[in-house]
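Q: Fold this one first, please.
A: Sequence and structure below.
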Amino acid sequence: MRIVEPTAGAFRATRVTAEFAPQDLRGKSVVFLNNGWQSMNKLVDEMRGTLVNEFGVAQVLEFEVPIAAAASEAVLQQATENADIAIVGLAN
């Protein structure tokens, strides 16, 4: 019998950079791309409050993306036009 293990080992970053990360979130707009898993819905709710109340984020938007496919070009365009930061959620 052959068993194929589909999980990956832990990722080890060789270089960490904040080159494109905003230094301050106050007044920024954040968008979540949410694939609709129940755990991601809970994370978005929790993170929305934290981003606004603790980091001063001005606006939090959420766009649904397909559960088993890439986000549409229209959704990506909306995210690009309406947010400073995007968080892609694929929680399960």
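Q: Good. Now the second chain.
A: Here it is, same layout.
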Amino acid sequence: MGHVPRTQVSSNPIIAFFQYVWSSLITAAKGLRVTGYNAWLRERVTVAYPKQELDLSLRTRAKHRVLVDDTGDPICIACGQCQRICPDHCILVTRKKVTVTTPEGEEKQVNRPDEFVIDLARCMYCNLCAEVCPVDCLHLTRDFKYSSGDVHTMRIELEGLLRPEPLSEYEANQTDGADDEGGEE
């Protein structure tokens, strides 16, 4: 910026007062001109959210989900990998032994989650928990409409995480990509 000359102010206090008022009005008019241009003449870049929505990217990561098998039980084996890798420590997994009957008719002891809690208020949606899952049962969906005014309601337990609907296109691609990477080694 170049040198801005100082405004000559009169030594008479009444004239100086009006000079300051005039200078303030000029400055305010310049600011309002910029505001008016941005408000009425420029293209809108925001949307009125509840009435109008933007298309989400396929890579959007929001609410978690745990896949279920044909019987409605979670596929999760409660290994705790998601809990260990979480940088925010917002996942809590405890396990219990459950007896299941295999299709061959054998009874077998398997690990299942006794408690599976995710604190969405602390989560930064990094997707590390889903990437480390050995049975690929934990995914992040594109469902972002779960805000709340109370932090305590942002804790989701296993029943709230179970989602029987099929994988989204992005989740399916991520699952296929993980299988391809494992086969190349």
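Q: Anything worth noting on the second one?
A: Residues 8 and 19 are 9 Å apart (CA to CA).
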